[in-house]
Amino acid sequence: MRRTAENKLKVVAVRVDPQFEQRLRLLAEVTGRKQSFFLQQMIENGIAAMEETWLPPAVLEQVRSGALPPLQDRVATADLFGDEPDE
User: Fold this and answer.
1) Rounded to 5 degrees, what are φ and ψ at 19?
2) Are the C-beta atoms of residues 59 and 65 closer than 8 Å to each other?
């Protein structure tokens, strides 16, 4: 797919356990692919399961129909690891 201004890839930063980072680096080195390729594959192949688990049914139906709900300005909350939200 050719990237345009509308479908430009976005950067997302995450913190991972050093063990996972090492495994990801090894996977990339052995296969000759970039770590970002494998992260993209993991996201694409796993996001549906996360949506099924975490989204309310009404929102999940919107996502599945392609009518993504608008992002709202939300107050940031601590992440799953108990880290304080970035301001």
Assistant:
1) -65, -40
2) no
Q: What angle in degrees, to the nearest 10, is found between the helix axes of 18-31 and 35-54?
A: 130
The pLDDT tens digits for 26-77 are 999 999 999 999 999 999 999 999 999 999 999 999 999 988 877 876 555 5
For residue 18, the one-letter residue type is: P
Structure tokens at 20: 């996972």
Three-state SS letters, the chain = CCCCCCCCCCCCCCCCCHHHHHHHHHHHHHHCCCHHHHHHHHHHHHHHHHHHHHCCHHHHHHHHHCCCCCCCCCCCCCCCCCCCCCC
pTM for the predicted model, two decimal places: 0.67
